[in-house]
Amino acid sequence: MSTNTDEDLLDAVQRIAPVIQQHADEAERAGRLSPATVEAMRAARLFRMFNPKTLGGLEVSPLTCARVIEAVAALDSAAGWTLSNPVAYTYWCARLPDAGPQEMFGRDPDAIIAGPFHPPLHASPVPGGFRISGRAPLASNCREAMWISVSAMVMEGDQPLTDAQGLPQTIIAFLRAQDCNIIETWSVLGMRGTGSDDISVDSAFVPAARTLPLVPEFEPGVHYRGPLYRFPAMGINAVVLPPVTLTIARRAIEEVKAIVTEQVLDAVGLHVHAVDLPVGGLDDALGQVMADEAVDAEDQDSFHGGPLVYREAAGPDAMSEFLRGERLAVQFQLEDLE
């Protein structure tokens, strides 16, 4: 499996960047991605990144996928999130019987899969497959999807069936979107463009070819013989989910830097270019800056009117440290630039 990045896809993201940015506010107002954004990402072939080449997919490396999602999320976090989920679900299709992916992607390799992973719905065995019933939240971009993926516990009456170890039998099922009802519940302050409403299902039939047992071991289908599909499932989660959250976190830091620089530090009376910000220590940092107002004129002269300078002291692991709640190794500094 290649560890190189497909620069063509990153170039494609930059070509559609104006469309994504132009419609970001529209998505937040509407509670779903703009059709123009969805179509732009479809035309750029982003939804088919983890689809196999034999079904018209790109079968890109995990690194390429992560960088593409990161690039889209930098333009609009909702667009990045609603790209990451369908891509992850296409990877899971490697565990389906061969007829399942053929039905789902044979005519449309850009078909979008949405759906909640938890809590599990109920699956009642019937000849040829299962009947699925239940309700689950957080079905991101369900209105744009052709297929809805759900987890479900296999039931006999009102009791779950168990395996040889006594554990409940659980499956993942891919339903036709028209077999699901969308319940508008996604009323939030941010990321409204993901359209993460609830879905409900009432005894919808799913053929066995569109279901897979949720177990560790599996044999990839005939279309999924490449090394990508032997990549661990948790590894795929680590590829598709962190790029969005890390991008949001980085943007939040930049926004706070801008607020501190433009609104607070200007009150000190110094010409400000930029400032180091200790994550988790904002109160201390602001206290230090505001204390400078008490510096007498003689001390002020010692700065020679010099600006505050942003010194990037954070290392390459700064973002992961931030997510763990650790203090970044950055601080406020006043420097004489003469």
Polypeptide structure, described:
The chain is an alpha+beta fold and 338 residues long. The chain folds into two domains: 234 residues, Butyryl-CoA Dehydrogenase, subunit A, domain 2 (Beta Barrel), CATH 2.40.110.10; 77 residues, no CATH class. 36% of the residues lie in helices and 16% in strands. The protein has eleven helices and nine strands. The longest helix has 23 residues. 39% of the residues are buried.
Assign a percent range to the helix content: 25-40%
What is the C-level CATH assignment of the largest domain? Answer: Mainly Beta
Q: Estimate what percentage of residues fall within beta strands.
A: 15-25%
Count of domains: 2
> Quaternary status of these chains?
single chain
Helix-strand sequence: HHHHHHEEEEEEEEEHHHHH
- What about the largest sheet? 9 strands, mixed
Q: What is the CATH superfamily label of the largest domain?
A: Butyryl-CoA Dehydrogenase, subunit A, domain 2
